[in-house]
Design brief:
By secondary structure, this protein is mainly β. The chain is built from no helices and eleven strands. Strands 2, 4, 5, 6, 9, 10 and 11 form a seven-stranded mixed β-sheet that branches. A four-stranded antiparallel β-sheet has the order 1-3-8-7, with no helix packed on it.
Length: 118
Amino acid sequence: QVQLVESGGGLVQAGGSLRLSCAASGSMFSITVMGWYRQAPGKQRDLVATITRGGIRNYADSVKGRFTISRDNAKNTVYLQMNSLKPEDTAVYYCNADGYTGSWNNYWGQGTQVTVSS
């Protein structure tokens, strides 16, 4: 089993910045793709950004140029640097990972709230 623990959410004014972190832990696991998704009230959960173990990144169009995803493979941690935040970025942000613990599974964190005030 792989556990994902997020941190770094909070309240920020429009134009501000936040940095989210997500650390993976567990026994005898290997993580490939890690990413961030978000879900605003009444809306579906959408992709924000993903990054492979080799560093290939993918972003939603709505965050390109403002958000940067990175990871530390030695620490099994993924980060999301969010700059120039907008009120429409307000959502619960979830960490996601594909992990191997004898079989491949997809894992989710518990979510962290990001609120951007106008």
